[in-house]
Amino acid sequence: MCLASREARVGDTMSSASGVNNGDGKEAALFEQRLSKIGEVRAALGQLSGKAALYCSDASIARYLVARNWEVKKATKMLKKTLKWRSEYKPDEIRWDEIANEAATGKIYRTDYFDKSGRSILVMRPGVQNTKKAKGQIRYLVYCMENAILNLPHDQSQMVWLIDFAGFSLSNISLHVTKLTADVLQGHYPERLGVAILYNAPKFFESFWKIASPILEPKTFNKVKFVYPDRPETNKIMEDLFNMEELESAFGGKNQATFNINDYAARMREDDIKMPLFWSPENTALASEPYVMVNKDMAQEGSSGLKSEETASEKREETDTESENREETESESERAEIDSVSGKREETVAVSDKREEKETESENGKAAVTSSNGVELTSLPGEGKGITPAD
């Protein structure tokens, strides 16, 4: 599709879908400026084909620009990394039978209902982690995210993470897996997370939070909210986001349904059939998804926090290679740091961790998993605005 026709098509959405008032010169000018930057990124990417061309819609490119504060060079660099990752990792080709063992306990699953904004919901329960290898855990997370995106309504682009800390213990903590999770979410799915709810996190999680929160970029950090059932002010977050009749009782809702692996497997196999169709060349809706400017874009534009956010993004880019090639010694030092803060890690766990790290290193030639029991991907930390962990 040529740039002129694309801009004409997207321009038609300015007064309706985007909420941009054609009579407001400032907003209209900003919208056109951003369209121009989307075009610059597209030009810098060069000729694309196949799934890469489908992936790089205007809306998709805009998500990378938002993640890099609308700086074309940085967004282009970030997007190129994702295209390379997708061509090698092939996230859209992961199928249920490949990761079914990871899903057995319901540690991550997509609900059959949406939040009030129409966003897909991923429930995450790190307390029922059932595997030890970081590679399999990350692959299952990627599968779930691709599935959540597949099931988004046509007018929605983000998902919600609902993280339930029931049964969560110190053995479920791993800074290494948290870093891998953050790398995937922030590096390859920018602006896909709408909000993450950390529900009833235990007291000891506070120590891990202090260490792990710097991993998150400011945009991600600000999307995470702590909610506690005994705090009315945090429960209001749930009421504002969800239909309480649909929300599961574990999160304070009225839905008594529980996770059933057989029912969920059937749903996922149905979605596995849809996925190739979603990524087929005939899916012009995917390739032509327009950029839509919403009101929050305007609010963020003049934010005083952009400079610090940009600095954090630059720092992250500089350390990408180091993160990808993390060595065993780093994992051990991270574990030691967590232990010194919590003061509760048993020596037997550390010994088992070291053995697990060596096994993984010999198999993959990469940094090892740091937890003997494996760690749910959803121990990803975050902090809600104005909300602090339980005293």
TrEMBL record:
<dbReference type="Pfam" id="PF03765">
    <property type="entry name" value="CRAL_TRIO_N"/>
</dbReference>
<protein>
    <recommendedName>
        <fullName>CRAL-TRIO domain-containing protein</fullName>
    </recommendedName>
</protein>
<feature type="compositionally biased region" description="Basic and acidic residues">
    <location>
        <begin position="1"/>
        <end position="10"/>
    </location>
</feature>
<feature type="compositionally biased region" description="Basic and acidic residues">
    <location>
        <begin position="307"/>
        <end position="364"/>
    </location>
</feature>
<dbReference type="InterPro" id="IPR036273">
    <property type="entry name" value="CRAL/TRIO_N_dom_sf"/>
</dbReference>
<feature type="region of interest" description="Disordered">
    <location>
        <begin position="1"/>
        <end position="21"/>
    </location>
</feature>
<dbReference type="InterPro" id="IPR001251">
    <property type="entry name" value="CRAL-TRIO_dom"/>
</dbReference>
<dbReference type="InterPro" id="IPR036865">
    <property type="entry name" value="CRAL-TRIO_dom_sf"/>
</dbReference>
<dbReference type="InterPro" id="IPR011074">
    <property type="entry name" value="CRAL/TRIO_N_dom"/>
</dbReference>
<dbReference type="GO" id="GO:0008526">
    <property type="term" value="F:phosphatidylinositol transfer activity"/>
</dbReference>
<feature type="domain" description="CRAL-TRIO">
    <location>
        <begin position="96"/>
        <end position="259"/>
    </location>
</feature>
<dbReference type="InterPro" id="IPR052578">
    <property type="entry name" value="PI_Transfer_CRAL-TRIO"/>
</dbReference>
<dbReference type="Pfam" id="PF00650">
    <property type="entry name" value="CRAL_TRIO"/>
</dbReference>
<feature type="region of interest" description="Disordered">
    <location>
        <begin position="299"/>
        <end position="391"/>
    </location>
</feature>
